[in-house]
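ok trying this again, last paste got cut off
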Amino acid sequence: MAKTTDRDFWKHGWTKHGYCSSAALPITDYFNGAVMVHNNLIAINNKNNLRDYLAEGGVTPANNYTKQVIITAVQRLVGANNNVYVACKKDSGDIYLKEIHLCLDTTLRNFVSCPTADPDQRECGNHTSKIRISV
């Protein structure tokens, strides 16, 4: 999100990802949980974010990869038996990585496998399609 304020960023995070959990999880708990997950599960082993795990798995910006290569790189973080969602955006015939969804248990302390989703809803093409990672 280019040229946005911190407030805009967090507002987007809540609207896009947290609002559906508001019945069970108050907004402050959602954001406290996000910080806890980052500090305890992601920002460890000299890594600061998901991009570091992708790079460790050989997935770097400005290159193209299959969805499975991206998933395998993310599984370095979440565990080899845990499925993640990879969502893409098609533009002018190319497929770009849009989002990677990680799933957690209700304690927010352990990664779990994301439920199976219809691949057509993720716009990443078939298993041989090449997905571009933007810089």
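PB: full thing came through this time. The mean pLDDT is 83.
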